[in-house]
Design a protein that fits this description.
The protein is α+β, with helices and mostly antiparallel strands. The protein folds into two domains: 232 residues, no CATH class; 123 residues, Porin (Beta Barrel). Helix content is 50%, strand content 25%. Strand 3 and strand 4 form a beta hairpin.
Length: 391
């Protein structure tokens, strides 16, 4: 029965890989067709191809999140060139939420098309430019540049909406609204102060500090010299200190990501020849998709209970995960200390709060008296955003 269960899981893994490869190949062709149309400035043809590619990706759930972030970002940019700005902003925020590699680049181009040059310049500071469009994007963006107003509400309502969007991580939509507010109400200090928090959340601390100072400078003298002005000056000092800390961060900090990590917990089961195990992990998941965890487990082998404890680290590439750790097994008559490599698939949900994980795990004993073994595991990981508590 256990061997049958193991065979079924192996078949599921191979079927999932085959379906994933077929879906990716189809979407690659659609995306390449859309890119060629966009470079030729055939916007309607490009939009048709991108829309179909996004729909296909959503149906097949490529990337484990429904659709590739960079595909969404290209689609959003094309929508902006077509002056469909509401849809462009919503899709670029979706792309950034699923960690599009070129998200900042496409967001900057969308903001330029809308006439928001300074915000775009800030985003482009560290943005990577995709090779396929590197020689054409400036002319393409400039050709479709315009001035646009997307909010017709009163300034107070627009400001509340912009703050609400920022709180929901719909960042580029929030930026677009704040840029409109700055242009139409240049003397309202509260706009600069609220806007600075958006860039602070993004880790763009130099611009956040600049906006804070602009807000302080616009305050009436009585307010600036009073308690409210002091609160803003203290916060600006905190932002400046944080910026210096980030700029002087160690290579390790830069590798794992600047944003606070999330707490992660995993529960699953694994199967191997004559062995069934229940496993758990508790650890941290960083903004650069590294994770490290303490692993605990209990397994049954030949009517004997075996306890497991270990440490492991994982790196995620799209839906693929590779990991390496150490594992100690405690049994009645023997203890086995092993190196534990692993590889598999992790399907993250759209909100990035949990994932379904299917892994092949190896155990390479440090003692020559022990044999190599492996298992296939399936489980669920849940990620807890601690809102900056862990730093």
């Amino acid at each position: 029965m256990k061997r049958l269960f193991l065979t079924i899981w192996m078949g599921c893994l191979l079927a999932e890989l085959s379906a994933y490869a077929d879906g990716v190949n189809q979407n690659d062709k659609l995306q390449q067709r859309a890119q060629a149309a966009l470079l030729a400035d055939s916007l309607h043809e490009a939009l048709d191809a991108y829309s179909l590619a996004v729909s296909e990706a959503q149906e097949h759930r490529n990337g484990g999140r429904g659709v590739s972030g960079d595909l969404l970002a290209e689609y959003a940019y094309t929508l902006a060139l077509h002056h469909d700005f509401e849809a462009a902003l919503m899709n670029i925020d979706r792309a950034r939420l699923v960690s599009a590699k070129y998200g900042d680049f496409y967001a900057a181009q969308i903001l330029i098309v809308m006439g928001h040059e300074k915000a775009a310049k800030t985003l482009m500071t560290d943005a990577k430019v995709p090779q396929w469009i590197s020689g054409s994007y400036q002319a393409l963006t400039d050709r479709h540049k315009t001035q646009v107003i997307i909010s017709t509400d009163a300034s107070s309502a627009t400001q509340k909406r912009a703050n609400r969007l920022a709180a929901n991580k719909q960042t580029i939509q929030s930026i677009a609204l704040f840029e409109e507010l700055l242009a139409s109400h240049p003397q309202q200090y509260g706009i600069d102060v609220d806007y600075s928090t958006v860039w602070e959340q993004m880790g763009r601390l130099a611009y956040a500090s600049e906006l804070l100072q602009q807000g302080i400078d616009k305050m009436p003298q009585a307010l600036r010299d009073g308690q409210k002005g002091q609160i803003f000056r203290n916060h600006k000092q905190t932002v400046d200190q944080k910026r210096m800390s980030y700029e002087n961060a160690s290579w390790f900090k830069k590798m794992i990501g600047q944003n606070p990590p999330k707490l992660m917990t995993y529960v699953g089961a694994s199967m191997a020849k004559d062995i069934f195990a229940l496993n758990g992990r508790l650890g941290l998941y960083t903004s650069n998709k590294f994770s490290a965890s303490l692993n605990l487990g209990v397994s049954s082998y030949d009517n004997e209970t075996i306890s497991n404890i270990g440490l492991s680290a994982y790196k995620t590439f799209n839906i693929f995960v590779v990991g390496l750790g150490v594992n100690q097994q405690f049994a009645k008559d023997a203890n086995v200390f092993s190196l534990a490599p692993s590889a598999g698939l992790s399907f993250l949900n759209k909100s990035q709060t949990s994932s379904f994980d299917l892994m092949l795990n190896g155990y390479v004993p440090f003692s020559s008296d022990q044999k190599f073994s492996y298992s296939i595991s399936v489980g669920k990981t849940i990620y807890f955003d601690l809102n900056g508590i862990l730093k």
